[in-house]
What does this fold into?
Amino acid sequence: MNICLMTNTYLPHVGGVARSVSTFAEEYRRLGHEVLVVAPDFPGRKLPRRQEAIVERIAALQQFNGSDFSVRLPLAAALSERLDNFRADIFHAHHPFLLGDTALRLAARRNVPVVFTHHTRYEDYTHYVPFDSPALKQAAIHLSTDFANLCDGVIAPSASIARLLQRRGVHAPIRVIPTGIAVEAFASGNGARARERLGIPRRAFVIGHVGRLATEKNLSYLAEAVAPLVAATPGSRFLVVGAGPAEDDLVARFERAGAASRLVRAGLLTGRPLHDAYRAMDVFAFSSLSETQGMVVTEAMAASVPVVALRGSGVREVVRHDQNGYLLPAGTRPAVFATHLARLRADPRLRRRFAGAARATADSLSRRHCAEQALGFYEHVRALTRRERLVTDRSPWGTLLRRVGVEWEIVARNARTVADALASAS
It folds into this structure.
């Protein structure tokens, strides 16, 4: 099968969507399929030649509105000769706008189906756009819901997101398929090596966190829980892997708590250094309530690290309270969250029991298994749309009408979104 993946963020950008797309792309190729990734250009360091060979880059504005995301320029995604020659059997959009709209147009032109993965709760990210408001959040919900219904199939990274989409009125076929992880790679990390590199004492109790350091990750809550604990606990450290606009605020909160010397910032890590960092942790702390899957939680589990997390979408599917960690209600006070971290510090036997269960949870989410599920969904969607595509192919006007119809639906969707936003604001 020829699979075209279209995404507004991709490597070397470090983030959940970029890692998800690259994970599926690599596994599809291992399974014998042809893959083309269409993604924005990204400044700075480049991918190794083998990885970059499957990518068609699109000119884009960088660091949109102070974020580290790219936004493609208007008309920059005009059909390239490479895209024409690829002859995709299916287009897979990973965002409901920009290159997502381009995926709809290309699929109509080629008369092939479109699948959309709803990676993100977009209403939790409107603070990156000027004039953020409740109306804009509602518009983001309508935009992604309407886009999903323009597609032939929708992938939800977790069952909680699938239920959310159904409640919002998505009627396209939905399949729950998480992003798989390289379980063995995370399990084989060398924690002692990471501790030595980062200057963490060998016997220190390490609370860890991995992810983009941004407001939507609820890091102020996490700092309020962890900073007093490590300040009051000799020999403890808080290891943070990642970067982002909220990093300075995180540092300031630890300074105010008198715990600045116990905060270890590793920056962005990938590959072996990332695997080692997970293995250097004794417990993983996660407070985000805006996840669709929470891949970092599963990665920590693959490294046999128990988790303390708030009960949010995408997380409650993998963290099982009092089995592989602690899953606490979203309204839990930071001090209570800290109490559960302290409980694991005080009881090594409990940590070991949780660690074994965490690894078992991760084993069920291997990359190959998840990629095979996605390929099966592609075939299901192709079978569902086969009759319609045959009719279109046999009609002289079929492709033209399909393309005009898609354009009209895109325009109508955008108009509905604006109208709904204005109505909710009034």
Notes: Residues 183-363 form a domain with the Rossmann fold fold (CATH 3.40.50.2000).
